[in-house]
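I am writing to request your help with a piece of structural work I have in hand. What I wish to show you is a protein chain and, alongside it, a tokenised description of its three-dimensional fold. Could you please explain, in whatever detail you think fit, how the structure tokens follow from the sequence? You will find the record immediately after this paragraph.
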Amino acid sequence: MALRLPLPRSAGLWLAGALCAAAAGAAVLPARWLLVMLPDDAPVTLADASGTLWRGSAFIALGAPGAKRVLPQAVQWQWRWDAMALDISHPWLQGTLRARPGWNGLALPAQSLRVPASVLPALGAPWNTLAPQGMLEINWQPLRLGAPLPPGPAVDLRWRNAGTALTPITPVGTYLLRVQGGGKAGATLALSTESGLLDVKGQGSATGRGLSFQGEATFARSASEADRAALDGLMSTLGRRSGDTVRFGTGK
């Protein structure tokens, strides 16, 4: 008996049916499957996921494997079929984040995030020694995760009212790390001081080969002798010290 191949119209119906069945099956997949997809050694992961892949929640976990700290506030998500996008919400986000998946990555609109600096010690050294205080404000332009940053301003990370347990002075200042995209060439990083008793600056780059950054910190001109004495222990902890200048960095 000869094998009869389905007509093109029938094949299309079969394919549509298969896609509908796959979508219906994915709609009930448990959210905890996200935990399997994420690498165990990532410094930022998810924990205690509940719900489904389409609508659920999970807690953010920071730190190295075996020493992760689960933050108390959950991130929530819901798929919007009318917009073909994923709405993500969290108390740190300044509004709902609408992410749109595509063949070349996950598109994110411009948004901002406010994070207490007190969560950073969960990431380990050197933050657990510094015991930072203040607020981290992260502002980014429209970008696409999974693709190179386009040329131009991309992300601003501002540490407002920066403080640390290593000095009684609070705040020490406000500092800005600016990330600019360079397309396939990677991204450049620039650290600067907006205000404060420590004058901090630095330059670096991030490419597929890794991160390279070099910076230095000195006492600001406005720092009195009493301020310098109170900041002395912090300066000695930041990096390689030579007189009133400390150099720090990573990579070449």
About this structure: Residues 1-29 have pLDDT under 50 and may be disordered. The helical segments are 8-27, 33-37, 127-130, 225-238.
